[in-house]
Design brief:
Strand order of the largest sheet: 1-3
Number of helices: 21
């Protein structure tokens, strides 16, 4: 009896599964029939996309209303939500993975459709282009492939071997820490790599500090400009050497090593305001690479990245979307247009006094505007009025980078009787 009961229960379960599957298929056919009669009647281009590629799952099921409101919407294409708010309704797992230190700009802006087709594609992950081409729709090949020696993965268009297309805890969206990533193909303890580094490769060495991961005019993808002693293989100009090899120990401690050659920079550091930092034994290395770089000044990175590595509040102000800092000075990320990087006799490391610095470009302003200079004292700071008493080039809420609002709000800060 028990045996027959077992078969009977199994049959019931099987019939339930078949029934559910059939019901789902009926719903699928019903939805697609509605779509055929209503949506595709006006949108034959979408139908063509679905039939010619790998469709997005909701579109494949005919669930147009999962993303579109058929009657009215506040968003373009009758979407029920905007940007990633729409995509994350389903892709919650991906959303968690995007919560990293470095986020790809299209992701940060919620522009998933920059790379993905929301309906259908011939490419995996419904990418608009195949994997080897998609990155180059924004990142122009000319700049990346500009030099004669090209990194092998890049030749194959395999950007995702090194970069995460969405978010990463590593700078430049790298899938791993730079050295760990490079050593995956170029083991740091291999004979070839050690020989190229005079058998003195440090565990703390930064591969990407000296090598360009994309292209270079030099062997071993060395960066464009090299420190003269390094280029001439005179490592002992800076490093102590033994009878067998160059050691990682330096000949001098601190900044004195660099300043023993760079006397002009030493004079800049001796000005009233000095930009010497105390984060390293040699603070020159905060901004400069002692071996190679893409710039003549051997800067470690782009100018703005170097400055923002310490001036994080300024970065948030410049790159953020806070309406209080909506209006910024043009070329705001070219810091050395206005500031001296090593030292200055003027506050805020300005290249000259504040009014003269601004007057380099804004030649006429000081001649017809609000009185400025030592004859006009700002009652708030008790300092001489300057351009930045009223303007904040790093970001302000009103046009022309005017602080507080130029119609009245700014003026009554000093002119109390105007209230």
């Amino acid at each position: 009896m028990k045996r027959y009961s077992y078969y009977f229960m199994s049959l019931i379960i099987l019939m339930t599964v078949i029934s559910a599957f059939s019901a789902e298929k009926v719903k699928y056919k019903k939805d697609m029939k509605i779509v055929e009669n209503i949506c595709f009647k006006c949108h034959p281009d979408v139908k063509k996309q679905l039939l010619s590629g790998i469709p997005h799952m909701p579109a494949n099921r005919g669930e147009c209303v999962e993303c579109h409101n058929p009657h009215t919407s506040n968003y373009k294409n009758f979407l029920i939500k905007k940007g990633f708010d729409l995509c994350y309704r389903c892709h919650q797992k991906e959303k968690k993975n995007f919560n990293k230190g470095f986020v790809h700009l299209p992701i940060a802006k919620g522009e998933c459709v920059k790379c993905h087709n929301p309906h259908s594609s011939k490419n995996k992950k419904i990418l608009k282009e195949e994997k080897s081409k998609i990155c180059f729709t924004c990142h122009k090949k000319g700049k990346i492939f500009s030099r004669k020696n090209i990194h092998q993965p890049l030749k194959k268009g395999d950007c995702l071997k090194c970069h995460n297309p969405h978010a990463s805890d590593n700078e430049s969206m790298l899938v791993e820490n730079g050295n760990k990533l490079c050593s995956g193909c170029h083991p740091l303890n291999s004979e070839r790599v050690l020989r190229a580094h005079n058998n003195s490769l440090s565990k703390t060495a930064n591969c990407l500090g000296c090598h360009n991961p994309h292209s270079s005019n030099h062997d071993a993808l060395m960066r464009e400009f090299s420190h003269k002693p390094y280029a001439k293989k005179k490592c002992n100009r800076c490093h102590l050497s033994s009878s067998k090899r160059i050691t990682m120990k330096m000949k001098r401690k601190g900044n004195s090593l660099c300043l023993s050659c760079h006397k002009d920079v030493e004079k800049q550091f001796q000005k009233v305001f000095s930009h010497v930092q105390g984060f390293r034994d040699n603070t020159c290395l905060e901004c400069h690479n002692p071996h190679a770089s893409e710039s003549k000044g051997l800067k470690r990175s782009s100018e703005s990245k170097i400055c923002f590595s310490c001036h994080t509040n300024t970065e948030r102000r410049i790159k953020g979307k806070n309406p209080m800092f909506k209006y910024k000075h043009s070329d705001i990320e070219k810091c050395t247009n206005c500031h001296m990087p090593h030292g200055s006799n003027y506050r805020l490391f300005m290249i000259s006094d504040e009014n003269s610095s601004c007057g380099k470009c804004h030649e006429t302003q000081g001649k017809f505007t609000h009185p400025i200079g030592y004859d006009s004292i700002d009652p708030r700071s008790k300092r001489a009025m300057t351009c930045i008493s009223c303007h904040n080039p790093m970001g302000a809420e009103d046009e022309y980078s005017v602080r507080f609002g130029r119609k009245k709000k700014l003026c009554i800060k000093c002119h109390k009787n105007m209230r």
